[in-house]
Amino acid sequence: MTNSTSFSELKLIDPLLNALAQKGYTTPTPIQAAAIPGLLQGKDMLGVAQTGTGKTAAFCLPMLQILSGEHRRVPSKAVRALILTPTRELASQIADNIAAYGAGLKLRHTVIFGGVGQNPQVQTLRRGVEILVATPGRLLDLMGQGHADLSLVEIFVLDEADRMLDMGFIRDVRKIIDALPKKRQSLLFSATMPEDIVALAHRLLHDPVRVEVTPPATTVERIDQRILFVEKNDKRALLGEVLSDPELGRALVFTRTKHGANRAAEYLKKSHVSAEAIHGNKSQGARERALEGFKTGKVKVLVATDIAARGIDVPGIDLVVNFDLPNVPESYVHRIGRTARAGREGRAISFCDVEERAFLKDIERTIRRQVPVVENHPFRSTIPFTAAPPPAAKRANGGGGRGGGARRRRR
Ligand code: AMP
User: Fold this and answer.
1) How far is the CA of 290 from the centre of ligand 1 (A)?
2) Is 243 in contact with 273 (CB distance < 8 Å)?
3) How many whole angstroms from 206 Cα to the centroid of ligand 1?
4) Helix, strand or coil for residue 194?
5) Which domains does the chain have, with CATH numbers?
6) Ligand 1: which residue has its CA nearest to atom 17?
7) Residues 52-61: pLDDT tens digits?
8) 3-class secondary structure for 227-284?
9) Closest ligand 1 atom, CA of 49?
10) Element (H, E) at 351
């Protein structure tokens, strides 16, 4: 990080500076330094950034400042600022951030998402709130029933736009955008910019400032990464071994599938490691309990799929384990970035079975470095490298003996 700007140089007002001091934040992250001045001037913004970069504060701080600069009575059901985000967890975290940063301001905010009763949400909206944080489905429901009115929105934030697309929310998002007034300030954040998001950005933003932070180089360098070659059927035993270290603090384990997450968590529990799985098939209550346990330290290991993990903002994750290697290299970077947040160092261990070796190659190409291999572990795969690795992970299968006969380099 080369910026030495302070928050006060960004012309933030005292109540916000006090709140930041309270949080112990001394220096703006790069995205905050880049985004805050333009946003305070009322500009639209395209932020290419992922969770972990400090992007929440980058949009919440100017939003709070702008809204508090011009106090207005908010009519029943109306909101002055809307933040759309794909998951309940993210919505709650953004709301927590707003509560913390806005502690010294007289602005009301609320959060709405599906999976819980709508009545309390309807009651709160009836009084009118300055800031609404919402997931798209529930918001559309409430709009349809006449409980939410977006016609007075002054600031609109579309957070994690690429996730919205992945999760199939993009049509809902478009409908919500159609309900917004033409004159407004709009912000779009996305970790990646697939074509659909580029199109959406065109539609949503007027003459936006583009702010891009690329964590790969910065984040990846600070993380101690290792690869463990292991056969698929030994992965759970290896996980138990890796996580049995009593010195270990919080660990976040990534699996490719929900089922895999459940099975890994069950295995760990049987091995007396306190673990919970978190993914889309779990009830809201179960997810919240797991997350809360993880935050308080009661649950040492959280096993998650990529989508579920997106919303987890727990500082102080000591270790990220890739139980399965992701087939998209960027996901690897996102995953391991969950440790080493906001300047801290972290560790990441990745299991790689014979079918995942092609993924490893892609990852190493993307991060432009070779990940050191741990040779000395009890479940070291003995399947040698073939000249051409088998086509990656088509079927879950032990793969025992496949690739035999080949001799190539062993890493
Ligand atoms: P986000 O990308 O918004 O999810 O933020 C990532 C993490 O960094 C969160 O835990 C924030 O509370 C934290 N954070 C945000 N801004 C700062 C800052 N300026 N200094 C230190 N930590 C920060």
Assistant:
1) 22
2) yes
3) 27
4) coil
5) 7-212 (3.40.50.300), 217-410 (3.40.50.300)
6) 54
7) 788 999 999 9
8) EEEECHHHHHHHHHHHHCCCCCCEEEEECCCHHHHHHHHHHHHHCCCCEEEECCCCCH
9) 2
10) strand 346-352
Is 57's C-beta closer than 6 angstroms to any atom of ligand 1? yes
Does the Cβ of 25 fall within 6 Å of ligand 1? yes
Strands 346-352 and 317-322: parallel
Torsion over CA: 361, 363, 368, 372 (sign): negative
User: From the CA of 218, how far away is ligand 1's center (Å)?
Assistant: 15
Which run of H or of E encompasses 100? helix 88-101
* For ligand 1, atom 11: residue with the closest CA: 54
pLDDT confidence band for 351 (50 / 70 / 90) = very high
Ligand 1 centroid from CA 76, angstroms: 33
217: tokens are 């180089």
Show the tokens assigned to 37. Answer: 């001045």
pLDDT at 398 over 50: no
Going by pLDDT thresholds of 50, 70 and 90, the confidence category of residue 255 is very high
Please give the full DSSP string across 207-223, using - where no structure is assigned.
SPEEEE--HHHHHHHHE
The answer to whether 28 and 5 have CB atoms below 8 angstroms apart is: yes
DSSP string across 44-85 = -EEEE--TTSSHHHHHHHHHHHHHHHS--PPPTTBEEEEEE-
- The answer to whether 57 and 23 are in contact (CB under 8 A) is no
Residue with tokens 């463990």: 228
Q: How far is Cα 368 from Cα 310, in angstroms, rounded to an integer?
A: 24
Question: Encoding tokens for residue 367?
Answer: 């991060």
> Smallest Cα–Cα separation from 189: which of 59, 34, 313?
59
Output the residue whose Cα is nearest ligand 1's atom 1: 54
Q: Do 320 and 335 form a contact (C-beta atoms < 8 A)?
A: yes
Q: Which atom belonging to ligand 1 lies closest to the Cα atom of 28?
A: 19
The rounded Å distance from CA 52 to ligand 1 centre is 6
Q: Is 1 in the pocket of ligand 1 (CB under 6 A)?
A: no
User: In one letter, which amino acid is 189?
Assistant: F
Give the Cα separation of 349 and 225 in Å (integer). 6
Determine if ligand 1 sits within 6 Å of the CB of residue 147.
no
pLDDT in tens, 176-231: 999 999 999 999 999 888 889 999 999 999 999 999 886 544 567 778 999 999 99
Tokens of 135: 């997931």
